[in-house]
Amino acid sequence: SDDGYRLWQRYELLKDPQKLQQYRQNISGVLIQGTSPTLTVTRQELDMALSGLLGQNVKNQSEITANALVLGTPENSPLIKSLNVTSKLAKLGTEGYLIETVAVKGQKATVIAANSDVGVLYGTFQFIKLLQTNQDITRLSISSTPKIHRRILNHWDNLNRTVERGYAGFSIWDWHKLPDYIDQRYIDYARANASIGINGTVLTNVNANALILTPAYLVKVKALADTFRPYGLKVYLTARFSAPVEIGGLKTADPLDEQVKAWWKNKADEIYTYVPDFGGFLVKANSEGQPGPQNYGRNHADGANMLADAVADKGGIVMWRAFVYDNKVPDDRAKQAFTEFKPLDGKFRKNVLVQVKNGPIDFQPREPFHPLFGAMPQTPLMMEFQITQEYLGQATNLVYQAPLYKETLDADTFVKGAGSTVAKVVDGSLHQYNLTGMAGVANIGNDRNWTGHLFGQANWYCFGRLAWDHTLTSEKIADEWLRMTFTNETAFLNPINKMMLQSRETLVNYMTPLGLHHIMGYDHHYGPGPWIKDKKRADWTSVYYHKASPEGIGFDRTATGSNALAQYAPGVQKLYGKAETCPEPFLLWFHHVKWDFKVKSGRTVWDEICHRYYSGAAMVGEMRKTWDATQSYVDAERFNHVKMLLLIQEKEARWWRDACVLYFQTFAQRPIPAGLEKPT
Ligand code: GCU
């Protein structure tokens, strides 16, 4: 059976006879000097990949021969040290690598070199990818360094193995059988992450349970950390702010209280006895009812700094989330994070990152970039993307998210003039941050294919690739993933790549066109619910966000409304400030317009909304046909899996279309434009 378990690491015999011949000729043996755990797993991975892809075992050797593959660092390999690559390596940092065709003692060889063993591992995965994607390897000269330091998955996994916003089964962490039982999945998880350069994982939900910090669990955390370490994957935990009270027996969790500080310091020291390279804490505080420093009249910096001090001497960091809101604050929810955090710029310790969601509301199909990006020059801001598709049709909708991530990263904050992109904020180049990071809320569970929807794997994959290098195009990343996951046949690649690239815009059209947002079903966020109102908080209802009335639709975030736009730099304000010139994808995000307002197409906004819902739903039908035409390229199990899901998605897109158009029509009181009215 082919259930997708192997992800993009399938290592099946290559089909192209010429390439196969080239690879067999150019890889006569493998020479690795060094025996560290990382180099050991590197060798294992190569053995597995080469025997699978080339259909023959490639011997390990200790002497150089023609066409050998030579791996290592100048430190552990005298051979690499003797080569002329040291000056190039000097520019690659600890995790970068180079892959070069060189002459060694008069013999042609391929070298994979780095400054650290984990760099060698990353280079090896890149080399394996060259084979998987049928690239020419006869004259290689490749070098690569990650643009962002901390490339981290956030698992919203609870200790009872449920996963908040998880749609792919239960948590892969089997706390019950840990620490003695090391599931092969943990190793395969680490391999997959290392193959795309992910170097950290937060094991537990941001809505944290303090028990993870107790010895009974720390011994299990240690077992996972030990398993992941050879793959360069560091473990982090979420810290429940009230833990000193809940598990420490203290009366308070006030971050300025000496006993509380001492408790966290001891706790951190204790964690480091289990996990000597523990990465640090991720914290959700004073948001959605979670405890935090504000419970004691302190601010976010007080809370973050107290935890930062506890881990500083061991090299740990604190990722303090900026996703905060509270309905006791009557203002537009989109403004609250900026309001609370902007005044704290410069007040955080050096080992604190403030982790900011890509947009100011909550992982919608489309949001403008978060106004904090660019506004905190003295505080490293970490990007938080959501890989799991909470608001994006969950595990039944095929949505390739690289275009969404790229749209945010490429957005211009204008804070230091045109070209001050969000990517430059996040990679530290705009404000010279000394610490940089990108987090992705994982879509991983214990489903056989890991992500529920096979194409969800592409979102895990593209998150890792963009965290490593945000300049890669969505198309290039999709191409790599498709070749490794399915086939190198262009007759498959061309239409399916195009389908992936269009899938996010298609989803926006059938869910939330023109800047509409948060009109999903209440609480579960699956399916349409634009009619939701009367809940205990206004900002959990749809009517709060779309503001449809007999006269018009949209959220006025200009000076005549909530003025959230004022949180952005003047360049951004100018771009979005007037309904007449505001880019259409954000029209109803920033403006309330009359139903007869004319958009670029010449249609009224009402007609345009209808067109978007109808064309979005129709596009899913096209996706289904595109997929159906690829049957001969894909094994039956995976083909049928995607086929059935696309049928569900098509139904759901129509559900969205009909629900939203009919609901908004009750206000617009206008007919559905001619030609659209016959639902398909
Ligand atoms: C969303 C999501 C919650 C999650 C929260 C967060 O609101 O629905 O489940 O806890 O984001 O990011 O903290």
From TrEMBL:
Q: Which GO terms describe its biological process?
A: xylan catabolic process
Q: Where is each Alpha glucuronidase N-terminal domain found?
A: 7-127
All residue ranges annotated as the Glycosyl hydrolase family 67 catalytic domain in the record: 131-450
Q: Name one Pfam family in it.
A: Glyco_hydro_67M
The Glycosyl hydrolase family 67 C-terminal domain covers which part of the protein? 451-675
Q: Which reaction does it catalyse?
A: Hydrolysis of (1->2)-alpha-D-(4-O-methyl)glucuronosyl links in the main chain of hardwood xylans
Q: Name one GO molecular function term.
A: xylan alpha-1,2-glucuronosidase activity
Alphabetically sorted, this entry's keywords are: Carbohydrate metabolism, Glycosidase, Hydrolase, Polysaccharide degradation, Xylan degradation
What EC number is given for this enzyme? 3.2.1.131
Which residues of this protein are catalytic? 288 (proton donor), 362 (proton acceptor), 390 (proton acceptor)
One GO CC term on file: extracellular region
Instruction: Provide the assembly information.
Output: Homodimer.
- Give the record's family classification: Belongs to the glycosyl hydrolase 67 family.
Return the protein name: Xylan alpha-1,2-glucuronidase
